[in-house]
């Protein structure tokens, strides 16, 4: 959410309007995804808040793609700045790519998201934000420590997040 706010602020001027759109769009998506993750076990879709089995994980990721699309469409309908809408497609694209990769591997969505956010802030706001890649490494370590992912899965996640966002920024300009 902070990355969305920083990018929204920077790309629109800076302006409070961009800050609010960035915070609102990313915040709505985060809240929808958190509600899906928390509601899944209550509805019996999977046993815990982080589904580790492929079937439930695919359901959660597919729902996250739908949530990203819904937030993006709502922001467009409500008049979000075009530059933020162009960038907002990144969340939709990255989640769809992670969903596609989940058919064959359990790549880390957490490291993918962290690397994506860090990449966007570094490329669009300030190159000194590259120091935040230390947080990506910490998240990768935590996923390994929890034994949720293998080293290859966290590296693939981080690489995917970085690659998709870099391509989005450079192909979009």
Q: Compute the number of structural domains.
A: 1
Give the count of helical stretches: 7
Q: Low-confidence stretches at least 5 residues in length (pLDDT < 50)?
A: none
Radius of gyration: 16 Å
Overall pLDDT metric = 90
How many E-type strands? 0
Beginning-to-end CA distance, first to last residue: 23 Å
| C-alpha geometry | globular
Q: Structural class of the secondary structure composition?
A: mainly alpha
Largest sheet: none
Strand content is under 5%
Q: What is the helix content? A: over 70%
H and E order: HHHHHHH
Compact description:
This protein has 173 residues and is mainly alpha-helical. It contains 7 helices and no strands.
Chart the SSEs and their pairings.
Blueprint: H1 2-11, H2 16-42, H3 54-78, H4 82-102, H5 109-124, H6 133-145, H7 151-172
Care to describe what's here?
This protein is mainly alpha-helical. The chain has one domain (2-172). The protein is 77% helix and 0% strand. The protein is built from seven helices and no strands. The mean pLDDT is 90.
Brief descriptors of the model:
173 residues; mainly alpha; 77% helix
